[in-house]
Amino acid sequence: MSAQRLWIKNPRAVFTANSHDAAGGVVVEGVVIRELVPAGCEPTLSCDAVFDASERVLLPGLINTHHHFYQTLTRAWAPVVNVPLFPWLKQLYPVWARLDAEALALASKVAMAELLLSGCTTTTDHHYLFPQGMEEAIDVQVDVVGELGMRAVLTRGSMSLGEDDGGLPPRHTVQQGETILRDSERLIKRYHQRGEGAWLQIALAPCSPFSVTSEIMRDSAQLAQREDVRLHTHLAETLDEENFCLQRFGLRTVDYLESVGWLNDRTWLAHGIHFDESEIQRLGRAGVGVCHCPVSNMRLASGMCPTVDLQNAGVAIGLGVDGSASNDASNIMYEARQALYLQRLRYGAQAITPQRVLGWATQGSAKLIGRSDIGEIAVGKQADLALFAQDELRFSGSHDPISALLLCGAERAEHVMIGGKWRVTDGNIVGLDVPELISRHRKAAKKLVADI
Ligand SMILES: [Zn+2]
Predict the structure, then answer these.
(1) Is 40 exposed, middle or buried (CB count within 10 Å of its CB: 0-12, 13-18, 19+)?
(2) Which of 220, 262, 306, 385 could join 204 in a cystine, given CB atoms 3.0 to 4.6 angstroms apart?
(3) Does one domain contain both 103 and 221?
(4) What is the tens place of the pLDDT at every residue in 76-89?
(5) CA of residue 92 to ligand 1 center, whole Å
């Protein structure tokens, strides 16, 4: 028997992230989109069920390309509310070093639940803390991803350059290169899925120039090439980082990236703020992607990603909420709104449209993680969809529904489908007891900072 066909019928508005007309909705069959229905038409395929979307705005599921789930345990922690990146990290490292498996599982679940409720269907996470007893941190996250039914790229982060060797993190939070590589290889072999419709993927993600050795950068790039997985790291986030690279390596950040074999289309960077014109061109030629994290960049006063210059040079731009100790929300729609406003300060109102920003959060983000099967509404793409109602007070009196999502501040999807399955219905995550999760997560968060 063939899979059931569902017509998501006549949305109030639809953003496809391409030039296709789906004004009459989409037909979902199994895990994929089978047909786009033009305005005023009916599907040519016979459908078993109809979902009336006439009061909802339809989007491709949003894609978050940078996060540190564990940081939901240290949101709005008073000692780091008003400091920039380096002192922020130095005060947080000892707290984060106390992370255990239960706390990480709860933190990951909270972050993903928050993302899901904001219309996110695919997320990445950059986990780079593996204190003693937490060697299987990524395995812990794999279980949570499965429970929530999201698509995920879990990046095996790493820190190998401790304070004693001139790095930023304390010695007890770093691992040996060999340990990192062995675990990276194990995770790829065990969990990395390939091809269209992959639910879970692994990428390699040495943390940043000031927390890993050049050797682990080089070795990770080689391993990623051999295993055909993607590479991710923080780069050009702050001027402190740029100065660190100049002092330690005698190189600017992009030169450093090139020197360790990362200047290629396997790589996507978080932040990408402090580039000069020639570096922007080089990144574009190499096919590197950049994840823009506006809230984190504003909160830590790091600077502003030159998104349009990067795009003009051929760099794909995606969107990320970044870790919850520097955002402190995991809401991808909220992030898109902030991106719109922040980028308008640099490029003006005409260049930064709601459609452009939603494009970053969908198709752009998909490119960053090397996916062509998600991030847009088109025939054959995965049925990852988000529907937003606009019946709240904040939308009353609004006219253009797509613009209203960002301008009026949509924060919560009403329905979210991933791979043809409803994961959020009527604003609730299917099968998740949110109050219970919050209560357990709050306890774990309190414990983590106790007596620090
Ligand atoms: Zn980050």
Answers:
(1) exposed
(2) 220
(3) yes
(4) 999 999 999 999 99
(5) 13
* Burial (Cβ within 10 Å: 0-12, 13-18, ≥19) of residue 129: buried
Q: What kind and span of H or E run contains 232?
A: strand 231-235
Q: pLDDT tens, 103-112?
A: 999 999 999 9
Q: Which domain holds residue 17?
A: 5-60+375-427
Asked, for residue 442, whether it belongs to a domain, the answer is no
Report CA(322)–ligand 1 centroid distance (Å): 5
* Domain shared by 85 and 150, yes or no: yes
Centroid of ligand 1 to alpha carbon of 255 (angstroms): 21
Q: Assess whether 127 and 241 both reside in one domain.
A: yes
Q: Residue 82: inside a domain, yes or no?
A: yes
Say if residue 19's pLDDT is above 60: yes
Domain count, the chain: 2
Q: Are residues 110 and 28 in the same domain?
A: no
Within 13 Å, how many C-alpha atoms sit on residue 312's CB side?
10
By CB neighbour count within 10 A (0-12 exposed, 13-18 middle, 19+ buried), where does 396 fall?
Answer: exposed
- How far, in Å, from the CA of 60 to the mean position of ligand 1? 24
Q: C-alpha angle 429/105/302, rounded to 5°?
A: 90
Residues 182 and 233 reside in one and the same domain: yes
Pairing of strands 267-271, 231-235: parallel
DSSP conformational letter for 4: P
| Residue 278, H or E segment | helix 277-286
Three-state secondary structure call for residue 376: coil
Q: Kindly give the distance from the C-alpha atom of residue 170 to the centroid of ligand 1, in angstroms, as a whole number.
A: 18
Residues 38 and 83 grouped into a single domain: no
